[in-house]
Design brief:
- This protein is an alpha+beta fold.
- The protein has a domain at about 5-105.
- About 35% of the residues lie in helices and about 20% in strands.
- It contains 7 helices and 6 strands; from the N terminus they run βαααβαββββααα.
- A hairpin with a 2-residue loop joins strand 3 and strand 4.
- The chain is elongated and about 60 Å long.
Length: about 150
Amino acid sequence: MASASVDQIRTHADKYREYIKENLAKLPVASSVRDILAARTAEDAEPDREITVCLRTRPLLPHELEKDEFTSVAVRNPDTYLFKPEFKWTGPVMSTQKFAADFSFGPEDDNAVVYEATAKKVIPLVLGGGVGQLYAYGQTGSGKTYTMTSLE
């Protein structure tokens, strides 16, 4: 099975959209990041961690919407699902891949939510003489700079 080309995706966009729509309904209901943080604070159940892994997806940009492009990522906190368009000799298919993290942020999560779950708990450590680091990794145009500068 090969990854679908841009032309193949455009040609079969309706079929891919239908696959995503059907499979979104099958995914578990997402917990909001704020609810998870509130529960951890209330129960004091968050373990001390040296590393917290978070995933963030951005909304489609205006130029992407103008081209009638569609998102192939779904956030169901704490997991992120990627719908990958592929092409077989029998026609278009799509696979789903799940990525697990401590938190997953979707387009509906603003920078304040990301700050609360990530940078906020690093600040007391740094001010107390410790070392803290936030690391952003991803494709060009995926929102790393936007996220990091908003956390300053």
